[in-house]
Amino acid sequence: MIDVSVLECLQIPYVTELLLSLLARTSVRQANRNIKCFSGLTVANVMSYLEKKVNAFNANLSKVAGQIDKKHTVGAPARPVPSPTPSQTSDSSKNDRKRKRPELPDVPYSQPRDTGTGQHIMTQITYAIEYLKTKNTPQTLSDILSYLSMQTREQSYKSSVEKILRGHDKVNYYPAKEGTAALFSFRPAHNIRSAESLLKYLQAQRTAQGLSVKELRDGWPDAEDTITQLEEEGKLLVTRNKKDNHARMVWPNDPSLGFEIDEEFQNIWNRIKLPEPGALADELEKEGLTPANKNRTMKKPVKVQEKTKRKPRSGGKTTNVHMAGILRDYSHLKK
Fold first, then answer.
1. Using CB atoms within 10 A of its CB, is residue 216 exposed (0-12), middle (13-18) or buried (19+)?
2. What is d(CA 100, CA 208) in angstroms, rounded to the nearest whole number?
3. CA 46 to CA 217: how far, in whole Å?
4. 156, 199 Cβ separation under 8 angstroms
5. DSSP code at position 314
6. Which regions of 110-150 does DSSP assign to beta strands (E)?
7. Among residues 208, 247, 212, which one has the least CA distance to residue 226?
8. β partners of residue 116
């Protein structure tokens, strides 16, 4: 006997299939007899029960369809990403190694990026000093700001630039007077900007130290042309670099110290033959004298010790006495 609760647990297709199988395999009399086995249930009761289940299923289906239409824009929940297995991690690491790196521009790392004129105030001061270095006359603050393209900056920024320039050790400051503005000029290591001032400075030196042309060019860019001209006139003594023949050091040349020598004395001087290198040392050794540049300490020859050869071992205990007639002695052939 089957209870009604059993039918409620069964789904609709299975109940229908059960009834159809019972009706197909048995006759009408046997089917009625089998149906009566369901605790007095009749076919009408079962069909009404099945109809209720179908109606309830259709109602639930329409309700769920309405909810799906309302939520069609909502994204599906993200699925949890499974943790990679050791084989997957190894494969991914190999793929990362094989990935092509982005192509970088062919620029040395030590070279700064060209971003135009610097905006920092100390960068502007550097540009201002370089500008003053190229000018032989003092410049006003408005000229400097115009060169730096800072006419539209705020007044506080302009005042800061003026304050820094006034206290800079490479800048000469000339205060403003009546009817004139304040002036700025470059302060070089040597305040020399003409041939007259160069000769005057060299003649006032108490030593023969000379003057570096590099320091001279710092405040006088065209100094080398003037130095070459004074050298041709005999007023300067100049040393030059072998590589580019640029002037390196200069000294004053006193024309009063120069005088001519007769040709006869020049010929006598040129006929004097200088000894060969090492000839003087040989002459001193012949006279029993030791030259000053010769090393007096004589190194003792190093004695090389000869390796002593080991003598062959004589005697010893004989262990294979039973083979005395078979074995032979080859010790005399050992080197």
1. buried
2. 66
3. 118
4. no
5. -
6. 139-140
7. 247
8. none
Q: What are the mean pLDDT values of the chain's consecutive 10-residue runs (335 residues total)? A: 46 52 53 52 69 82 70 52 53 58 58 55 90 87 91 90 91 88 89 89 87 87 89 91 91 83 92 85 86 64 75 66 78 75
Joined together, the tokens standing for residue 147 give 């060169």
Say how far apart CA 145 and CA 157 lie, in whole Å: 11
Tokens describing residue 101: 């790196």
Residues 149, 128: Cα–Cα separation, whole Å: 11
Distance CA 133, CA 193 (A): 12
Distance, CA of 244 to CA of 45 (rounded, Å): 121
Closest by alpha carbon to 81, among 69, 92, 66, 67? 92
> Which one, of 188, 192, 187, 189, lies nearest residue 204 by Cα?
192
Q: Report the predicted TM-score, pTM, of the whole model to 2 decimal places.
A: 0.40
Mark 263-273 as b/e (b = at least 16 C-beta within 10 Å).
eeeeeeeeeee
Query: Other CB atoms closer than 10 Å to residue 132's CB: what's the count?
Result: 23
Nearest to 142 by CA among 176, 169, 168: 176
Q: How far apart are CA 218 and CA 206, in angstroms?
A: 23
